[in-house]
Amino acid sequence: MKRVIFVCLGNICRSPMAEAVFRDMLKKRGLEGKIEVDSAGTSSWHVGEPPHYGTVSKLREHNIPTDGIIARQLKKEDFEKFDYIVGMDESNVRNIRRLLGQPDHPKIFRFLDLTEHKKDVPDPYYTGDFQETYELVTDGCEALLNKILEDMEIGDQTL
Ligand code: 4NP
What is its EC number (predicted)? Predict the structure, then answer.
């Protein structure tokens, strides 16, 4: 079993979108029992809230559910629990390292560094562009899933 956590600032826009998209990919590929996914925020600002309407409505266009996703803050114990701790932008990565007290651990990395984009996921809370977020999140989730399958040496056989 491998465990992934997506982390952004508020845990209402980008990281819950990534959680929902990734969970949907796992379901479609029959990998639900092999890989687990969660999300969290580095801030406590929206703890207890469901995802932002922009995230929910964009996902609904693609028939991807957000049931059960409720904002929470990243906590110290998450470092031990998760194998991939994925920041949506560079400031998220800095905050993750600080909150977890792990200045330089390879399991903490920036999401789109796994893709050819190699950039931050812009924050749709400010840009309002949930379509851009969805496209980048989809690319990043594909890349992350491929990386995890390689790490697990499952390769193509279960795809
Ligand atoms: P997220 O976006 O980090 O993608 O969830 C934000 C959500 C809320 C705020 C900032 C960013 N906020 O300032 O409340």
Answer: 3.1.3.48
